[in-house]
Amino acid sequence: MDKAILSKYLSLEQEKVQCMYVWIDGTGEYLRAKTKTVSIEPKDPKELPIWNFDGSSTYQAEGSNSDVYLYPVALYKDPFRGGKNKLVLCDTYKYNKKPTDTNNRHSCAEAMEKAKDAHPWFGIEQEYTLLDIDGHPLGWPKNGFPGPQGPYYCGVGADKVNGRDIVECHYRACLFAGIEISGTNAEVMPAQWEYQIGPCEGISMGDELWASRFMLHRTAEDFGVVASLDPKPMEGDWNGAGAHCNFSTAEMRAEGGLKYVHGNIVQ
Which pLDDT score is estimated for 64? Predict the structure, then answer.
C-alpha cells in the first residue's frame, strides 16, 4: 500500500485524541491493541478510563464469559499517529477483577514496591530477528544461506547488514515516545539486531521494555516485515536471540559497591 496516501489523512487537523490501548495477550509473548477516542489529552494513565475487550479472541477468557478489562498503567507519545495521540500500556484483569494468567506485571509491581528503598535499576539488551512474511530471515538467499558468522556483528555495508532502515525508525520512534532506549547494534547473525532499554528503576523497566517491543512490531509492520523474538529462529550454527538483564541497587552503585555485588552473587 502507498504510505503517501496514509500521510494525507494523518496530516488532517484533529481536535480529539486517539489513545491506543496496548496489552500482552494470553500467549504471554504477543501484543494486542485497539484505539479509544478521548476529548482531552491525558497527562497521566490514571486520567484514562478502564476499557474492556473480548478475551476469548486473545486466549485470555472463555466464550461464555469473555470480558477482560484494560487498566492503563503507562502513557507514551504515539510516534505513529503523532500530535497529541498516545500509546497506553495496560494491565489485564478478568471479569472478577483478578489478574489474568499473563498479567505478571501485577505481582512484579508488588515486588518492586517492597524493594523500592533499594532503588533497583535494570537494563535490558533486547535481541530480535527481522523476517520476511514467509518466516525466512530478511535478506537471506531464498534457497541457501549467507556466509558464515563473523563479519556481521556491528557490521556496516549492504553485504553485512539487513534492515537498518527498520532499526533506525524504531530507534527514533522510541526516542519520540519517551522510552529510555540507550543504544542499538547489529548482532552476530545477519538480519539480527539488538537494542538496549534502561537504566530504568523498578516497574518502569517492564513497562518500557514492553512498550518498545510494541513499537518494534508496529514499525516492522510498516515495512511489511516481521520482528521475531524467537530465541532460536534458525537451526544450526546460527546465533540465538535473548534479552540479557543488567541489574544493580543503590548500594551496588555507591562507592565501594563492588563488595555488595560479590555478596549478592554468593547468595
Answer: 86
What does the alpha-carbon distance between residue 196 and residue 216 come to, in Å, rounded to a whole number?
12
Cell digits for 55? Answer: 478475551
Give per-residue pLDDT as tens, 80-117: 999 999 999 999 999 999 999 999 999 999 999 999 99
- Interacting residues of 84 by C-beta distance below 8 A, sequence separation 6+: 14, 17, 41
* Residue owning grid cell 537494542: 195
φ and ψ of 7, to 5 deg: -60, -35
CB contact at 8 A, 123 and 245: yes
| Coil, strand or helix at 213 | helix
Per-residue confidence (pLDDT) for residue 186, from 0 to 100 = 98
Q: Is 153 helix (H, G, I), strand (E, B) or coil?
A: coil
What phi-psi label fits residue 60: left (phi over 0), alpha (psi between -120 and 50 degrees) or beta? alpha
pLDDT value, residue 121: 98
User: What's the rounded Cα separation, in Å, for the pair 124 and 69?
Assistant: 28
CB 88 within 8 A of CB 18: no
pLDDT at position 264 is 84
Q: Kindly report the CA angle at 191 between 245 and 184, in degrees rounded to 5?
A: 45
Contacts 24+ apart (CB under 8 A), 166-170: 166/130, 166/219, 166/220, 166/223, 166/225, 166/227, 167/193, 167/195, 169/219, 169/222, 169/223, 170/195, 170/212, 170/215, 170/216, 170/219, 170/220
Q: Provide φ and ψ at 220, rounded to 5°.
A: -60, -35
Residue segments in the chain with a per-residue pLDDT below the cut of 70: none
Q: What are the grid coordinates assigned to 19, written together?
A: 489513545
